[in-house]
Write a structure and sequence with these properties.
- By secondary structure, this protein is α+β, with helices and mostly antiparallel strands.
- The chain has three domains: 75 residues; 99 residues, Orthogonal Bundle (DNA polymerase, domain 1), CATH 1.10.150; 60 residues, no CATH class.
- It is built from twelve helices and nine strands.
- Strands 1, 2, 3, 4 and 5 form a five-stranded antiparallel sheet that branches.
- A hairpin with a 4-residue loop joins strand 3 and strand 4.
- Helix 5 packs antiparallel against helix 7.
- The longest helix has 20 residues.
- The relative contact order is 0.06.
């Protein structure tokens, strides 16, 4: 059987359909060579019976695209894929490609290996609210801003209970505003103590535990966009707080208390309005003639510390 005769010119391989290759059909076929990979695409018929006409048709397809059922195949597009696959792509090259894809709306987010945002969101939150490791807390303390362990530990417990289970495998850099909106929806279905729905104030506290770290990450250019921008918090309107009537309060203090110190502390709070931590932070030197000097607060993490407002005050004589 006679071997197929062929010629190669500038990446084009044209050959006649002889009996050894295409039966007895007289038309010429063309196969385009990918110069990046050295491979040929499947041969297609030019429907031309002379070599010159077949070459003209082949060059036309090379310029305009190969006929295909779904539309002409762009050789340059196919070549682009192969070029990227085989080329040495630097980080600036990758950033340019991703930037262009974002500009065209083909991708929304991207995380580069080794980048600041290529960390688990859960790990980022845990470090952010770790008093010993957090760069945010170091900044606050360096600037002499008030931030206490009790507050930080509360935030850490909140992200562990709500944020981390919801974003268990997400990377910091791949989060989008829609992800935070979905978290809001999730909070609406969460239950608190005694299986009661979370109050709006509690939901806002939970949201703050995650949005404060995200806004800090944006300011520090660890993420490319502020995904918390434009978020609307839950309404702060809540049920009216109930207080004891004077008659009921008097009846309670007439009862025998297991610990006399607790009774005295509650009576002091009733007549002065001191917070629980401020009551525990009172010292002998804070007791005056007909007044209390409120200079400290106390909690089990920070122990004796300044007041919530960092200011001293005198509730006055009641």
């Amino acid at each position: 059987m006679e071997p197929a005769r062929c010629f190669l010119t500038r990446g084009l391989l044209c050959f006649p359909s002889l009996s050894s290759l295409r039966g007895n059909r007289p038309s010429y076929y063309v196969a385009f060579k990918n110069e990046e990979t050295g491979r040929y695409l499947p041969a297609i018929s030019t429907k031309k019976t002379t070599k010159a006409a077949a070459e003209r048709q082949a060059w036309a397809w090379f310029r305009e695209g190969i006929p295909h059922k779904g539309g002409p195949l762009d050789l340059k597009a196919r070549s682009l894929r192969d070029t990227i696959r085989r080329a040495d792509v630097s980080l600036p090259d990758a950033e340019f490609i991703i930037g262009e894809l974002k500009r065209r709306g083909l991708i929304l987010s991207c995380v580069f290996a080794g980048a600041a945002d290529a960390v688990r969101f859960a790990d980022f939150l845990e470090e952010f609210w770790d008093f010993e490791r957090s760069p945010y807390i170091r900044e606050k303390l360096r600037a002499e801003h008030s931030i206490h362990r009790n507050y930080v530990n509360g935030m850490l417990g909140t992200v562990k209970k709500y944020w981390i289970p919801f974003f268990a495998s997400a990377l910091l850099g791949e989060l989008l505003p829609g992800d935070i909106e979905r978290f809001f929806d999730y909070l609406s279905s969460c239950r608190g103590r005694n299986d009661q729905p979370l109050s709006n104030n509690r939901k806002n506290e939970i949201i703050k535990a995650g949005t404060v770290p995200l806004r800090w990450a944006y300011r520090k250019e660890k993420i490319g966009q502020d995904i918390t921008r434009g978020l609307i918090l839950f309404s702060k309107k809540s049920g009216e707080r109930q207080i004891l009537t004077p008659q009921l309060a008097a009846s309670i203090f007439k009862q025998e208390w297991p610990d006399e110190r607790c009774k005295i502390a509650n009576m002091t709070a009733m007549v002065t309005g001191l917070r629980a931590g401020e009551l525990q932070g009172l010292r002998a030197g804070d007791l005056g003639e007909g007044f209390l000097l409120v200079r400290h607060s106390w909690n089990r993490y920070d122990k004796l510390k300044t007041t919530k407002t960092n200011e001293e005050r005198k509730p006055g004589k009641r």
